[in-house]
Amino acid sequence: MAGRHRLLLENAQQLVLVCGRGEEYLRQEAAASLAVLPEASLVVGLDGCIKAVGQADVIRSQFSGATFERIIDCSGKCVLPGLVDAHTHPVWAGDRVHEFAMKLAGVSYMEIHQAGGGIHFTVEHTRKATEEELFNTFKHRLERMRRAGSTLIECKSGYGLNLETELKMLRVIERAKQSMDIGISSTYCGAHSVPKGKTATEATDDIINNHLPKLKELKLSGEIHVNNIDVFCEKGVFDLDSTRRILQAGKDIGLQINFHGDELHPMKSAELGAELGARAVSHLEEVSDEGITAMARAKCAAVLLPTTAYMLRLKQPQARKMLEEGVIVALGSDFNPNAYCFSMPMVMHLACVNMKMSMNEALAAATINAAYALGKSDTHGSIETGKQGDLVVINSSRWEHLIYQFGGHEALIDYVIIKGKVVYQNERCGTISSY
């Protein structure tokens, strides 16, 4: 196949396809056994999409007359799909390192929240920060996530709680979408907490009557494109009825439903998500058996967040029960001032150790299933012809090292590639050549 192409990755010891038949997601037995090709190569075209995947000798023969902007010899290395982080809060000012000490001393998340800390502390600092300040810290965080292998990231607003600051955060996310080599799924999370001086009902009315119409207007004018709507459905925050009203109003203007539920108290959030046709529900530490059954039936993804359960010493989500009952299980880092983790490999490790997932299940959850949770599994989450060329190359002969090694991924990951373009290259591999 002559012609010019963007990238050839050749002679990989293992090419981890994850899935190879156009699956939207993997669950039950399918998530437990991933597609892996030994001694394989792949080609990414100038459009950033994968053109061919196969045995190294077959690809070599098929593309014998072709030219490439970049060729990387992956002998002794493994190639995986770019990781997908299905839940983050990466735009904010004012860290909460002081609260970590309080948590270690036994103060609960809601006790800190009710005393004016937690989300309220971050809201105060984020409201004061300029758009430029927020963008610069956000960009730095995205770069750290990218170095750890994440190529598609869900990014929420939610530290404004008023229209002005929520829009400021969404503009920052939009700017990163346009200016950086990284995939972003943006989420409006104005119902992250009840603003000081308002009741939950007043906050709900404000969101439905003011925030969402403005988002619709900005979408129509092309200024801001929001993908998802989120609500923190929790005791003392937004109850089930308020959550239903906000999510339905978001769905009515074309947003995917992807919300926080059943984290600290059983709220029947999973049942609500299934009822409303939610794309995903996150957290689910306190999910009911009925909620698990409803999510499996509705093909509503469960975005599990091992870092949160670990750092807040919460009960672990019932990952095994969800997997066995046919729920589409995805993973996210929940990066935020309360759970400061950029690394999806560490998230996968915690999911395996603390939530009893297998390494295959964890990788499926951090690739194809996380992409499904964002409505992106047609373009992301696996290495298949026609999909976007988002890839991670690791310096190991077995892909499982990405999960087996706890931390230290800066020494393991050689290349991170988005749309066939090298966006991160380990120092030992030389410098990134220009295109």
From TrEMBL:
- Kindly give the Pfam families that the UniProt entry links to this protein: Amidohydro_1 (PF01979)
Q: Which UniProt keywords apply?
A: Histidine metabolism, Hydrolase, Iron, Metal-binding, Zinc
Q: Which GO terms describe its molecular function?
A: imidazolonepropionase activity; metal ion binding
* Spans through the membrane: none
Which EC number applies? 3.5.2.7
GO CC annotation:
cytoplasm
* Catalysed reaction equations from the record: 4-imidazolone-5-propanoate + H2O = N-formimidoyl-L-glutamate
Q: In which pathway does it act?
A: Amino-acid degradation; L-histidine degradation into L-glutamate; N-formimidoyl-L-glutamate from L-histidine: step 3/3
- Which SUPFAM superfamilies did the record assign? Composite domain of metallo-dependent hydrolases, Metallo-dependent hydrolases
Q: Which cofactor does it need?
A: Fe(3+)
Q: Which family does it belong to?
A: Belongs to the metallo-dependent hydrolases superfamily. HutI family.
Q: Tell me what this protein is called.
A: Probable imidazolonepropionase
Protein's organism: Ibidorhyncha struthersii
Traced from the root, the source organism's taxonomic lineage reads:
Eukaryota, Metazoa, Chordata, Craniata, Vertebrata
